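Sample pair:
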Amino acid sequence: MTHQREMILEVVRESHTHLTADEIYERARKKLPRISMGTVYRNLDILDSCGFIKKLQPGYAQMRFDGNTKDHYHVVCMRCGKIGDAPIEPSDNALENLENALGNLTHYGIFGHNLEFIGLCPACLEREKSLPEDEQIDHLMMEVREDGSQRESNRKKSHHRIRR
């Protein structure tokens, strides 16, 4: 593996977040001032195709990269676009049962699933509370109480999105 590729991989894995190519480029430049954006893009593609990192599904404003290549779910902020790892195990029996049932109902060969949770990150949730009600996102499913616990909101239920 080239020195530049190792450095880019290190940047992605050290971040523990889901960086954009621009963010990776800026961090890599601190260690390798002469690295070009094209080099970063090419190496991100190579690292993804070799399984060292994961390119996150399209649908975000910018392509993002994940240094955690184990199967896991994400939670995405609807306001700022921040992406975090959902702290649940993807090996839940209920999801396996759902895959099997869906395969039986549709006659598709189901080989897996992508599940993404959407909501507001803690920072945006705090900002949301300070907005006038007519400017708040009206499709939150849960409201967070002062003690951190959650309860169902009186607001409209949001749609559930499962990405395939």
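The longest strand covers residues 114-119.
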